[in-house]
Every structure is written in C-alpha cells, then in structure tokens.
Amino acid sequence: MKSWAKRGGKALVAGFLAILTGIGLAATAAAEGPLQETENGWYYTVQPGDTLWGLSQRFARAPWVWPELWQENSRIIANPHLIYPGQKLKLARVTSPARQPSSPAAAGEESAGIHYYLATADQVGFIRKEPVAPRGVILRGRDEARRLLSEGELLFVKPAGPSALAPGSRMTVYRTFEPVYTPDKSRLLGTQHLLCGVAEILELGPEHATARLLKSYRPVRAGDKLMPYEKRPLRIPILAAAPGIDGTLIRAEEEHGMFAETNIAFIDRGRRHGLQAGQIYAVYEPIEIAQGSTAAQKTAGPAQDYGELLVLHVEEETATVLVTDSTKEFHAGGRVRTPMAAAAR
Known about the structure:
Blueprint: H1 4-7, H2 23-30, E1 35-38, E2 41-45, H3 52-60, H4 66-72, E3 88-92, E4 110-117, E5 126-128, E6 136-141, E7 148-149, E8 154-159, E9 170-181, E10 188-204, E11 209-216, E12 220-221, E13 225-228, E14 235-239, E15 246-252, E16 264-267, E17 280-290, E18 298-314, E19 319-326, E20 335-337, H5 340-343
Antiparallel strand pairs: 1-2, 2-3, 4-14, 5-10, 6-8, 6-13, 7-12, 8-11, 9-10, 9-13, 10-11, 15-16, 15-20, 16-19, 17-18, 17-20, 18-19
Helix pairs in contact: 3-4
C-alpha cells in the first residue's frame, strides 16, 4: 500500500459515501479494474485476492474507510473479511471534480474534511500516568461458579463510596495491569487501562449495587473495575502531524509478539508533545551502512519508513495508535516519527 507520508500534501479522495466524491476517482479507477458507471454511481466487480481494506486503499487512497464500503454493501457482504470474485460492490456517487488543497495543512489542522471511521471507538484503551480511580469493583455474577461474565448477565458490584454509583448510570468495565515503563526502563509512563465492556447500574443496596452487563468487548470477570462511560465519536478527523516527533512503540494493547496492520498499540508521545487524535505518524528504522568489516566501521544512513500509525486517543505522556499500514511486522521498541512530507513543511 502507498504510504501516507509519500502522498504528501495531496488530498485523499476518501470515504465511499458522503466523503468520496469527484471525477478524479473515475479517472483513477477506470484504469485499475472492472468498473461500471451507472446513474447511481460506480460499481466494481470483485476479483480474486481482493479485500475491502485493499479496495479502500486502491480507490479511496484511504484503507481505513473500509467499514463504510462494507456498510454500503452490507446486503451482499455478510462477513467483511470474506468477499468473493464476482460480487458487484457500489463504490461511490460521482458528483463533482475533486479539489486539491492550495497548501499543506498545519499541525493539528483538518486535512480536506477526511475522516477515519472507527466502529470500535468505545473499546480503545489507554496508558495514563495516574490510574483512573474506580467507581466500583465487580464482585461476581448471579452464578458464583461462573468465572467469565456474559452480556445481559446480572452483576454484583462493590461501590467505591456511598455516592460513587447512581441507578441508571452507565459505566465502562475495565482492568489495569502492572506499571508501564519506557523500553529502556528509564521512565515510568503509567498504567494500561484495558476496556472490556459497558454495564448499567440498576439498584443500590446497603452493601453492594446490582448492574447489568450491556456489552462485552473482551472477557469480563470478577475484579474488573468500573468508571463512567463516555461515548466516543466514530469518525476521527484526519489532522496534520506535529513536527519533530521522534518516539518509541511501547507495546500492543493486547498480547501480540509483533505488530501488523489493524493492531492497536501505544507510543511514548502524547498531548504535551503536540499529538492529537487523527494525526498520522511513521514507523521507521535507522539504516547502517557498512564501511568495513567491523561494527565501528558502520555509519548511519537514511532512515527507512515501513509502517504508519493513526492516533486514536491521547494522554499527557502517551498515545493509543492504530497500525494502518506496514510493509513488514515490527516490535515494541520500534521508532516513530513525523512523516517526512510533514517534516518538510
């Protein structure tokens, strides 16, 4: 897939619904695949090896809008990970010429009205220096023998105080882990908060509250904590990256030995460094050029980008990111920087 950084300041023709317009799409797509133009828009016939992610990159120049392509064609696509040759997908309604921005966006400025659609926005966790003070802790479900709790199940909760919970309020179920440090262990970054589901408080009793588990993103169990639920927007405006960022990948949100596309991870740069949700950053590695046979005879060459990260959530010292592009797998400790095109502004 083409790199966001390599695309520079050019506007993306993004989104397959209201976002994706312009005869620029037609000019690009006509040369690339079996397309058919009708009064209702453009249609593409699926070829062997196609994926929604790949088609979104190919025609919208934005692979992360694939959920919109799926939504538009949900009547014929039951599983977004399984599309079949011969299926005819609606791409877009062509209405007006695509416009190019007159100049690159400044840091934090919205990029040509482009958005990333994240259906799982409420599930995105974070690393925070001071852990969230829980409003309550899950004691157990109705059935004491059940270790894992299911959607719809009644929960018994120990409130953190007499006014910590209120009937009718919705709470995010989460758990925390051991403190997180930088890869070299030199600096404490905070505590990871893994979001597991949503519960509604039903009733307060003298010793415990009862709640119902409305949603479970991940297994919910006794000992998990509650904090106030905040509905997050599903559309994240794409913003220009902050200049001069040079950071490190800390870890994946869940236990992955290696990172690849669609994985969520954390980096050691955050709000105080100028990061905002919607910015794009590059994963890179320094290149050493051998001048002889010994390690001392190696010199630093130009760094090579091999992945892209979309910022989903920021804390003061850290950010939660989504891997949107990778030419190879990478690990914790990988380097993160402002894309070269943004750095050149």
